[in-house]
Specification:
With 337 residues, the protein is mostly beta strands. It contains one helix and 33 strands. Strands 1-5-4-3-2 form a five-stranded antiparallel β-sheet, with no helix packed on it. Strands 24-25-26-27-33 form a five-stranded antiparallel β-sheet, with no helix packed on it. The radius of gyration is 22 Å and the shape is globular.
């Protein structure tokens, strides 16, 4: 009898191991006992940073989505999925949207998560950017087109509808209600009826990773063709080096992640002084650091946060603080014109 009981236990154990392996895929779950709150942020690639209405900093990283409350970091997604995250948005209702690589998008209401994938109508499961338009629709830039979500269903825009390329890096709506799409192909504009490729001297802007509209209504483009400003009729080029991120601060200065000179050798933040943007040679301040910036945020206190391949960092105007280790390192970078 004991012999049969032992055989039965071995069969049950073997079956359970097989079931656990199938039901708990490594890409979507993590151990329940993993520490959530830490004194440091992510240590790997950070591709997006925002600040919510309560002042919390949200960080989309390869290690998960982190929330920083000014004292500690919490990995919000560690018990939900181990997917790598690329984008984050807080919508007008206070909900958080997290775009992942390979696992679609997650909606977080502060208590629970809801996952949307291609099975629900999303164009693609690689979500590189998220944007909310003036009517409250949520847009997703994916590797297979752009998706617009109205709270009930998705409407997708791909090359079949006129989008210049299905790999979408950036989406914004300008003050006139037109949508701008930065793609791995060309930049295009959507007026609600048709897509038009933006060109300069007959050439399109290619592989654009960042599109913003400044307070004056100018459109800024950053990508493989460098940093450009378009005022609706003419173009101005500020650098031909690759630019992946652009923001405008409260003073009207334009910040990018590009080094003015020796790009790649001395990674830096670059600040174009707002008062000199109309000059033939605007004043530029270069802040060098050990980390190459992938994304930028101006926080409420005026500090500049940026994500890199080694985590998240904060520039307070005089020094850069790294949050990727338990004992954060503070460095004093060179700044100059």
């Amino acid at each position: 009898m004991i012999k049969y009981a032992l055989i039965l236990m071995l069969i049950i154990c073997s079956y359970c191991k097989g079931q656990n392996k199938a039901a708990l895929p490594k890409a979507d779950t993590k151990p329940e006992n993993e520490e959530l709150v830490t004194s440091h942020g992510p240590k790997n690639i950070v591709r997006d940073i925002i600040q919510d209405r309560k002042g919390n900093i949200w960080i989309a990283s390869w290690d998960g989505v982190f929330k920083y409350d000014g004292k500690s970091f919490t990995n919000i997604t560690s018990k939900v999925t181990s997917a790598r995250f690329f984008s984050v948005l807080e919508d007008r209702n206070g909900n958080l949207w997290f775009g992942s690589i390979g696992s679609g998008v997650y909606l977080y209401d502060g208590k629970s998560f809801r996952n949307f994938t291609t099975k629900d109508g999303l164009a693609g499961n690689d979500v590189g950017c998220i944007y909310e338009d003036r009517t409250g629709n949520i847009w997703f830039g994916t590797g297979r087109g752009a998706s617009r979500y109205n709270g009930r269903s998705f409407r997708n825009y791909t090359m079949k509808e006129g989008l210049s390329n299905n790999d979408v890096n950036a989406i914004i709506e300008d003050k006139k209600g037109k949508f701008w799409f930065g793609t791995r192909g060309d930049v295009c504009i959507y007026d609600g009826k048709r897509f038009t490729v933006l060109t300069h001297n007959g050439k399109p802007f290619t592989n654009v990773w960042s599109v913003i509209e400044d307070r004056r209504g100018n459109i800024w483009l950053g990508g493989s063709d460098g940093l450009w400003r378009y005022d609706g009729s003419s173009f101005a080029n500020f650098t031909q080096e690759f630019i992946g991120a652009i923001i405008e601060d409260k003073k009207g200065n334009i910040w990018t992640n590009g080094s003015i000179n020796d790009y790649g050798k001395h990674p830096a933040l670059a600040r174009y002084e707002g008062k000199s943007l109309s000059d033939k040679k605007p004043a530029v301040t270069e802040i060098k650091s050990k980390a190459k910036a992938f994304c930028l945020l101006e926080a409420n206190d005026g500090s500049i946060w940026f994500g890199s391949g080694t985590g998240v960092h904060r520039y307070d105007g005089s020094s850069i603080k790294d949050f990727n280790e338990i004992n954060s390192v503070e460095t004093h970078p060179f700044s100059g014109y």
